[in-house]
Design goal:
Blueprint lengths: L24 H11 L8 H14 L3 E5 L2 H11 L7 E5 L5 H8 L3 E5 L10 H6 L5 E4 L11 H10 L3 E5 L7 E2 L2 E2 L6 E5 L12 E5 L2 H11 L7 H5 L20 H12 L1 H18 L6 E2 L15 E4 L7 H10 L27 H7 L2 E3 L8 H16 L1
Parallel strand pairs: 2-3, 2-4, 4-5, 5-8
Antiparallel strand pairs: 1-9, 6-7, 8-9, 10-11, 11-12
Helix pairs in contact: 1-9, 2-9, 3-4, 3-7
Amino acid sequence: MKKMKKDFFKDSSVKFPAYEPWISNDDKRIVNAALDQTMLTFGPQLEKFESDFSKYTKAKYAIAVSNCTAALHLSLKALGIKEKDEVIIPDLTFVADANAILACNAKPVIVDINKNDFFLSISNLKKNITKKTKAIIPVHIYGQVCNIDEVLDIARTNNLKVVEDCAHAIGTFHKSKHVGTIGNTGCFSFYPTKNITTAEGGMVITNSKNIADKVRQLRSHGMLKSLKSRYTGGYPWVFDIVEPGYNYRLDEIRCALGISQLRRVAKINKMRKTAVSYYHSKLQNIPGIILPDLVSDKTHSYHLYTIRVTKSFGMSRNQLFKKLKQAGIRTTVYWMPIHKFTAYNKYVKKSNIKTTSKIYDEILSLPLFPNISKRHQDAVINCIKSLKNN
């Protein structure tokens, strides 16, 4: 029987966590080997991780950065987003999208989502395009391809840039293309809950050399020379900065972990799909529980399994969360919509958030990670079924 890890929050009642990172012996070996290098940043692990990620996604360029927020910020900067520009994002997304826009001194325009698939509402998107609109950030939420074709059509018609939020979507494909290669850039997260992890980390992919060069420059204080080029000729301390940048580098240790994790991403996503299929088969036909429609979707990376708890279930989402927690099962919600946060109130129109407000009160993500046990899943399934029967 698989041994459960201790709950980080020191809650002895939690027997079944929402997720556990999968760090293998191979992961540990490659990280330990990286620690023996003379260079712990901007070294061979970075180059290999970027090269491997580029090959996996078939993007011409991949630039590793400190996190997905940095990836979003650098993408927007490289695309020329500046003060007073507007960038449209869905309400149901992580605040990183809004924060990246604000870091450019631009304005996030928060719009509604569709009822059934959680994607950015196309009708709402069209209503919110103005002369100041310069870009759209569509989100491939929960690991599924969003309505990217419709977004691209609108972007082309209105001369807008598209930055794909692929934080949930490593291994997600659309018409044989990996997400992130469809718009101007794609931004990935390697946070511990993601399909592959570097603990903290992110990646920008693009097919544009100009964008790639700009992102590389800005991620390291705006330096025009790389660390390697500075030390292979001339005086290493002599370089120019024509535009201030940021310290968004990804170190060798985390790049090494990323290399190892990426080697088994296909296996990771297959294990996730197996777990999702099991949930799907056991939670069918429970009145009031709406399951995500994703099991037959071969393009999906199965990042999250998010159900909806509606009135006919007999209790609210929050009540179900509490009951599961009382049974030792940790669940969570991804995420509170952006309009719920005080910091972004001034960017929200009530007419733009009607669907999100309703959906938010219903969604709940069940425990899901590659090596989740049947015992773990059965505890979740049996608890939900027993509560309905009562």
